[in-house]
């Protein structure tokens, strides 16, 4: 039984920019009724197919700009694919940026409700989870203090705690483990392991090879929108690191 | 429907909007009442002192339509900007996009209800009352909300692709105010007055989807009676049509909001 099925998905963005390259050209364009706009297609993902089995933990690795986040946003339904099909079986929550939807004027408790609501959880359901969330984030004493008075560490901890408290069976995680101090990170990893043991389906984007090796059943390497390798984390990471090293060596040579 | 699961999201966002709006104000939510009262004062000065007219109880006459217009205008404008203003959320969270205009409308509905409640209470205290008109108010509010939501969704979707929409709406609303029977009644327009070869009365009644609703509000609050059935019929038709149109276009466009923002 699969939780996520991605069939031959490509995603092309149209990047619109002003054609004016000079200051005078900019003002001429401003004065025109229709501005001269240049539309440049950019293919972020090319013909990607993958499946994630129920209860599986998949790690996605790759350099910056390789399409990892775009892939997660497509699976989450934030972007629509240019071609291909995506099927998701089960309730899914995409945690793409910690603290998205947080507001400084609201208290910690109210932020928990707002954030939970944006992820599709009712106020009543979130109310039951408030104690657990506050305990994990270690902010019990500040639950009714406006978020703007929190330290950035407290905000990050609360954001992670709210995100991870979702009961959704499928979770997409985009690099959200890089928060808090070492002790909190260790607890985050322990929490993810707990979710995994409980049979949740996890798809995580990470720059940390150690984390992918430790947590994932399978890994996938994207490079400039193409699927380069897929399989046991050990092998995929080795292939990715080998390429990264050889590219770094070439760059260093070209400087010499 | 999926949106039902997200009703608390619209509610929470509306509460946030309200809090932000009145956070650092002295009289807070009372502004939602003070604003129309000031306008009523101004119009009353203009139309009883400067340009006298025969309408009895002119302040009530204006206020009965102005409150509804204020709600409509604020709801449409805020809903129109809701998706572009909610860019941060749209890019990062996969909630149904209709939550954003819904929250904007809800925010205005709350302030409108407060203001209307106070005005109705004042009318009863003054011994004037509303008579049978009171019974029609819930239906009228529902229809107005429906119409504003439809137009709000339509403009919100358009605004994602053409930011000119919001600029344009400012001017458009100013014009719309004057072709809606708010500071005058349709009956006050001379029947022989023609615009584009059509009687001006008929034109406003047929082309302006808001006109029947505003007239119905006036009949309920000022004339203290149940609104005419044909007004209600026209209002319901307009509300339903624009709601469907707005929902359809918004639903279609919302799949691509994230990449267009």
Protein described:
The complex is a heterodimer of chains A (256) and B (261). Chain A is 40% helix and 28% strand. Chain A has 8 helices and 9 strands. Chain A is globular and about 55 Å long. Chain B has 261 residues and is an all-alpha fold. Chain B contains 12 helices and 2 strands. Chain B has a two-stranded antiparallel ribbon with strand order 1-2. In chain B, helix 2 packs across helix 6 and helix 6 runs antiparallel to helix 7. The longest helix of chain B has 29 residues. Chain B is globular. The relative contact order of chain B is 0.14. At the A-B interface, helix 3 of A face helix 2 and helix 5 of B.
Write the layout of secondary structure elements.
The complex is a heterodimer of chains A (256) and B (261).
Chain A: E1 2-18, H1 23-31, E2 37-53, E3 57-61, H2 68-76, E4 83-88, E5 92-95, H3 108-118, H4 123-137, H5 152-164, E6 170-174, H6 182-197, E7 201-205, H7 209-215, E8 218-223, E9 226-231, H8 233-255
Parallel strand pairs in A: 3-7, 3-8, 5-6, 6-7
Antiparallel strand pairs in A: 1-2, 1-4, 8-9
Helix pairs in contact in A: 3-4, 4-5
Chain B: H1 2-5, H2 7-22, H3 31-50, H4 58-85, H5 87-92, H6 99-125, H7 133-161, H8 164-178, E1 194-195, E2 198-199, H9 200-207, H10 211-221, H11 229-254, H12 257-260
Antiparallel strand pairs in B: 1-2
Helix pairs in contact in B: 2-6, 3-4, 4-6, 4-7, 4-8, 4-10, 6-7, 7-10, 7-11, 10-11
What is the total tally of β strands of chain A?
9
Name the assembly state: heterodimer
Order of helices and strands of chain A: EHEEHEEHHHEHEHEEH
Q: In percent terms, what proportion of residues of chain A is strand? A: 25-35%
Tally of DSSP β-strands of chain B: 2
Strand-residue proportion of chain B: under 5%
Gross morphology of chain B is globular
Alpha plus pi helix count of chain A = 8
Overall pLDDT metric of chain B: 92
Based on the coordinates given, report the CATH architecture of chain A. 3-Layer(aba) Sandwich
Number of helices of chain B: 12
Characterize the main sheet of chain A: 6 strands, mixed
Helix content of chain A: 40-55%
**Sheet having the most strands of chain B:** 2 strands, antiparallel
Principal-axes geometry of chain A comes out as: globular
